[in-house]
Amino acid sequence: MSHIENTADVSAGARIGADARIWHLAQVREGAEIGAGCNIGRGAYIGPGVILGKNCKIQNYALVYEPARLEDGVFIGPAAVLTNDLYPRAVNTDGSLKDDSDWHAVGVTLREGASVGARAVCVAPVEIGAWAMVAAGAVVNKDVPAHALMVGVPAKQIGWVGKSGHRLVLDGEEWVCPATGERYRLADEQLAPIG
Fold it and tell me: Who contacts 76 (Cβ-Cβ below 8 Å, separation ≥6)?
């Protein structure tokens, strides 16, 4: 059974999966889909139509703007931001206040198991590959390959990580996770598990 704090603002038009937890002051907008087992932290914002797969963890004060798509097991750190506007302006060129018809939202996509660290920003449109890790404070402005370890402003790849989140170590021609022993091979700038 899901748990929703009475101070959370959850639209009646949102779909909340089994065993999801939505904490104090979080806001989940109309049309959002929260997968089974998700945890939405204090003060987090989930925009209209955002889709979260199962077992995602959205930490305190993270902002996930529409039309973001998060696959199963995605982690969004505290105060991280997934943007949605290529040309952010409050007004049109004639000075009139912009409304929904004056812009086209673009989204951030996070593949299975990807992680975005605290206060990182993903500038849409970008795709974060499966099991990739974006370090705290990084600014991602281009697509990230699966298993990549990204740091800095703008974010640059400095290595690879396994499903456990540990940085992989090169062993001959294979990359090895020191925590699990899982092995990976690099081909055409893409890392893939062996076996």
Answer: 56, 57, 58, 59, 62, 64, 70, 82, 110, 115, 116
